[in-house]
Amino acid sequence: MAKAYWIAHVDVRDPEGYKDYVATAKPAFEKYGAKFLARGGAYEAMEGRGRGRNVVIEFPSLEAAKNCYNSPEYQAAKAIRQRHAEAEMIIVEGYEG
């Protein structure tokens, strides 16, 4: 079974408020086996628009990634995030080739 990834590009408007999102999202990530591969580190935008924070989260499967996003736990966190940041996020299935 292929792994799956959340890829998010985020501009945080309120860093203090965003901390509430991180804390509220943590139980959902733990429940669905999330592993952070990139989390807001240094970056260089090579093409297109860059955002201040870039995140890649690995999940054990596409189903787990979708279930995490749609879970009540993450939806509560998402509501907080949307108050404090603007984001683009996709879920992509990994390649096992």
CATH class: Alpha Beta
Shape: globular
Beta-strand percentage range: 25-35%
Q: Give the tally of structural domains.
A: 1
Q: What percent of residues adopt helix (DSSP H or I)?
A: 40-55%
| Radius of gyration over all CA atoms, rounded | 13 Å
Largest sheet, order of strands side by side?
Answer: 2-3-1-4
Number of helices: 3
CATH topology: Alpha-Beta Plaits
Structural class: alpha+beta
Let me know the average pLDDT: 97
- Number of beta strands: 4
Distance between the termini: 12 Å
Low-confidence runs (pLDDT<50, min 5 residues)? none
Order of helices and strands: EHEEHHE
CATH architecture: 2-Layer Sandwich
The profile of the biggest β sheet is: 4 strands, antiparallel
What multimeric state do the chains show? single chain
What features would you describe in this structure?
There is one protein chain. This protein starts with a strand and ends with a strand. The model has no long low-confidence stretch (mean pLDDT 97). α1 packs antiparallel against α3 (72-84). The protein has a 4-stranded antiparallel beta sheet. The protein is 40% helix and 31% strand. It is globular and about 40 Å long. The protein has one domain: Alpha-Beta Plaits (2-Layer Sandwich), CATH 3.30.70. It has 3 helices and 4 strands, in the order βαββααβ. It has 97 residues and is of the alpha+beta class.
